[in-house]
Amino acid sequence: MSSFGGSLSLTMSGKRGGQRPLRVVANLTRANYAQDTTTAGNEMRQVRAPHYVAQATREIWLVYATWWLDLGAGGREVANGNGVTLGAALEYNGTTVVAPNASAFAMPDDTTFLAGPFKASAFGLSAFPAGAAIFSRTVMTVTVGQKIPRAGQYLSEAPASRLNSAAGANQLSGTGLLTGQNNQPGPAPIMVIGRTLSPAVSLMEIGDSIGEGQNDSNQFPSSNNAGGIYQRGAWNANKTAIAQIGRHGGQLSRLSNGTPAEGSRRRALYKYATHLIFHFGANDLFDPTTYASWKALLVAEIAIARAAGVKHITVAGISPRTSSTDSWATTANQSPQASWDPTKSATANADLAARGPGNDAFFDVNVDFGDQGAAAKWVVTGAANFATPEGTHPQTAVVTPAGVRFTTLIGTFQKY
Question: In angstroms, rounded to a whole number, what is the distance separating the alpha carbons of residues 414 and 416?
Answer without folding.
Answer: 7
